[in-house]
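[Discussion] Sanity-checking designs against the backbone

I'm trying to build intuition for which residues belong where. Below is a structure token string of 53 positions. I'd appreciate it if someone posts a full sequence so I can compare it with mine line by line.
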């Protein structure tokens, strides 16, 4: 299981690094991913609140 997680992480990191040419590009990509994850968590929380009513 750890081996699969390592392979997936390495693959994702390699795609991320090839997607942008500079360190600032990497930081911007990471920021965008963080914001998207935050929005997803927020939407999930709203759905949970709707269901709890």
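Best answer:
Here's mine. Compare freely.
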């Amino acid at each position: 299981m750890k081996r699969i997680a390592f392979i997936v992480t390495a693959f994702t990191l390699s795609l991320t690094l090839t997607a942008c040419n500079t360190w600032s590009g990497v930081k911007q990509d990471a920021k965008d991913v963080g914001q998207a994850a935050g929005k997803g968590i927020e939407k999930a929380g709203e759905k949970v609140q709707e269901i709890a009513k």
